[in-house]
Amino acid sequence: MSEFPPLLPTFARADIAFTHGEGARLTAENGDVYLDFGAGIAVNALGHAHPHLVKALTEQANKVWHVSNLYRIPAQEELAKRLVANTFADTVFFTNSGVEAIECAIKIARRYHFKKGHPERFHIITFEGAFHGRTLAGIAAGGQEKYLEGFGPKVQGFDQVPFGDLKALDEMIGPHTAALMIEPIQGEGGLRPADAEFLRALRKRCDEQDMLLIFDEVQTGVGRTGKFFAHEWAGVTPDIMAIAKGIGGGFPLGACLCTAKAASGIEKGSHGTTFGGNPLAMAVGNAVLDVVLAPDFLPRVQKVANYAKQQLGSLIAEYPDVFEDVRGQGLMLGLKMKVPNTEFLDALRAKKMLAVGAGANVIRLLPPLIITEDDVREAVKLLGETAATFQKKAAAE
User: Fold this and answer.
1) pTM for this entry
2) Among 61, 50, 5, which residue's Cα sits nearest to residue 23?
3) Helix axis angle, 297-318 to 279-292, nearest 10°
4) Does one domain contain both 265 and 346?
5) Whether residue 232 sits in one domain with residue 103
6) Per residue in 335-375, pLDDT tens?
7) CB neighbourhood size of 263 (10 A)
8) Residue-wise DSSP of 200-230
9) What is the CATH number of the domain that holds 72?
10) Which domain holds residue 373?
11) How far apart are CA 132 and CA 107, in angstroms?
12) Which helix (H) or strand (E) holds 380?
């Protein structure tokens, strides 16, 4: 028998398995309880075992799971109408994941120019530090060598410029440019927010040159920053937007939202999916919106997020040899580290708290949006206790 593991070894997994969770806490096989400030990498937006989501999923599971998109799916129509009513979009395509939503966005942008008689306009400009998923097009769009290595020629049609550099952008835009694609806040790239003025400049250039503006809000969307979508803070709307993670609250669900103009090149048969928009996912997606779109939900997220950022700020002053700064927005927060983020995350996990790494030696704090100020205080306490051990090491050296 082969010694190769049955499970393809693509992840450096921690040796913990969780059996159940509730709210912002997860219980491991041995009974240890962890404070979850990773939320499955910003996925479990409403925490674990949220009763409204559990009810919606189990009720639907007793009815029908899958029928395919050969037939109408009423819950899909309902969720699409709700997303359209609460965003810039005119139409929605449902997927199973964020990278599928990104692929859909890319295809819509290219098809838009193809139908206008300009098939040569298929290039999309992206920004250094970006992460747009793990498909061949996704890693080409992200442009990071560590994800591209070993997978053959890079998919054509993606041009990268430095994040926030308008001069470099203007030099890159040419007759082949179809669209600009950006994360309003880079997640994997180290919790780097795009300046509001920069986003407005992108919108202006797209309007002037008939390019489409694509926002990747897979991680920033569905309340994560305290607004329904992060671009709302800048007052800038895209033509196309990819979302996932929080919209399913833990169930695999993504979507590509776009304007009627952007979608004008799409016709029957030009795109499709087998599982996307299935009844189970739609039941959960609608349940998520029931909670997130309630009048008091996002204001409460903003309040707790402001408190969290203030409390995290105190750690910078107390442990100057460990932390450099606090970054991010809403409950998409990061701590820039002066010690290796991987070592810090391991030590934090030993304290029974979960967080997530990011580029630029940052740790991401992506808790469920339902956390309380008490949860924040507990998190800051555990972060402080962990930092104290690194501060002592630094002092000894």
Assistant:
1) 0.96
2) 50
3) 80
4) no
5) yes
6) 999 999 999 999 999 999 999 999 999 999 999 999 999 99
7) 21
8) HHHHHHHHHHTPEEEEE-TTTTTTTTSSSSG
9) 3.40.640.10
10) 18-46+297-396
11) 14
12) helix 373-396
